[in-house]
Amino acid sequence: MNVTKIPIVALAAACLVLPACNKIEEFYEGTQLTASEHSDSSSSGSEHHAEPGHNDSEHASSHSANQNETQSDGHGEAHEEGHGGEHHPAHKILVTSAVAKDVISTQRYVCQIHSRRHIEVRALEGGYLEAIPINEGQSVRQGELMFKILPVLYQARLNSDLAEASLAQIEFDNTKKLFDQNIVSQQEVALAQAKLTKAEAKVQLAKAERDFADVRAPFNGIVDRLMNQQGSLIEEGDILTTLSDNEVMWVYFNVPEARYLEYKAAMDENTGGEDLGVELILANHQKFPVPGQISAIEADFNNETGNIAFRSDFANPRGLLRHGQTGTVLLNHLLKDAVVIPQRATYEILDKRYAFVVDADNVIHQREIKLETELDDIFVIREGLQPGERIVLEGIRQVRDGDQVVYEFKDPNEVLSHLKNHAE
User: Would you kindly state where each structural domain of the chain is located, as residue ranges?
Assistant: First the structure.
């Protein structure tokens, strides 16, 4: 008897496969049962029975047609959505016009503030610093004593010259008495007079040299830091302090050549300077209460920067401004009959600015514009637009060059009075 030997591995595999096959068979039988029940319920509940000759192929073709129609509808909707983008309500196209009006163009320049007179107070003679009757930061008047130096040498020379002058005076008096008694001639009197005059001149010179030791204020001003203290040994020419006259401040700022030509023309046309207003912004961003005026323009341009220095004078009644401060000058230039438009009526392409102009047939035309200056919410136009020409204000992104549009016109004065938006 031949016994077939089955490997243990095969038996193990069969044990694993047989339960799976049983589950598949049970699933298949359940599926058939469910399909049969569904078919019976469909047959009993249907009002329309299949006609003879209506086979499964016709049913399949009908189902396929319905599916194609559904896909076609879906494709059409997708195509429409992709072509037109998201559906948003169309914005109204507003049109306004360029207008000519007087505007103030303001340019900002960094500035340096200087005192009208700012000097170094130096010692005219050497010696010991005997007294300092002033304090740092004190205001002094012209002629007031600031420093007193003890010049030992010059004081001794003055005393010697005073003694010689006294001796010459005595000799002159004696000679004069002798002349009155006809003892000496007139020439003796003249010689005594000359000797006395020479002695008195030497006294005046000694007094002047000694007075050099008394340093007095040459003008009204404010005393800066004291460089030496009382008792210091001072050499001739040593800096004792600085003195600043802050009644009027000189403010310097650099202007480019193009702006210089513009300002110079305005100054030549109006000698009173009403077309050029000067204001000063301090470091705390507060405006200095006193306006200034252009007082001087330097003679030469700086070839490295292309700028030229302007000087504006500001009265300083409260002494708020000090020498060495910095700030910002606001130079306000009145532009008469300037062509202005809102900033949001323009757009930029490749560093060029454009506007949509509406012609008499309501056709849109793209036009390049060139700016004179930029203000808060408006552009001042140098080239490209004339007063009265209509431009698109709102709806710039909805129109194209050559489109014919229906729009609503808005008065430019009303538009300019409610601006707070920049270009799109």
Answer: 94-103+337-416, 107-112+245-334, 118-241
Bridge partners, residue 108, by sequence: 330
Distance spanning both ends of the chain, measured CA to CA = 101
Side-by-side strand order, sheet with 145-150: 214-216, 145-150, 127-131, 233-234
In CATH terms, 118-241 corresponds, of 1.10.3210.10, 3.40.50.300, 2.40.50.100, 3.40.1190.20, to: 2.40.50.100
Question: Is-contact 244 118, C-beta < 8 A?
Answer: yes
C-alpha span between 97 and 409 (Å, rounded): 9
C-alpha to C-alpha distances, 214 to 72, 107, 121, 183, 319, nearest whole angstrom: 109, 49, 12, 48, 28
pLDDT higher than 70, residue 185: yes
**Per-residue pLDDT reduced to its tens digit, 251-278:** 999 999 988 998 888 888 765 555 688 9
Q: Quick one: fold of 94-103+337-416? A: 2.40.420
pLDDT of residue 8: 42
SS3 string of 388-399?
A: CCEEEEECHHHC
Two tokens, residue 320: 């708020």
Say what the pLDDT of residue 189 is: 87
φ, ψ (nearest 5 deg) of residue 365 = -135, 130
Residues in CB range of 419: below 8 A, 6 or more apart: 342, 343, 344, 376, 377, 378
User: CA 320 to CA 288: how far, in whole Å?
Assistant: 9
Q: What distance in Å separates the CA atoms of residue 407 and residue 388, rounded to the nearest whole number?
A: 16
Q: Which CATH number applies to 107-112+245-334?
A: 2.40.30.170
Query: Furthest-apart CA pair in the chain: how many Å?
Result: 197
Q: CA angle, corner 290, sides to 289 and 293, nearest 5?
A: 140
- d(Cα 221, Cα 89) in Å, to the nearest integer? 72
Residues 355, 346 contacting (CB under 8 angstroms): yes
Helix (H, G, I), strand (E, B) or coil at 67: helix
Q: What is the pLDDT of residues 288-299, one digit of tens each?
A: 999 999 999 999
Mind listing the pLDDT tens digit for each residue in 311-347? 999 999 999 999 999 999 999 888 888 999 999 999 9
What backbone phi and psi angles, to 5 degrees, belong to 384? Answer: 115, -25
CA distance linking residue 92 with residue 94, whole number of Å? 6
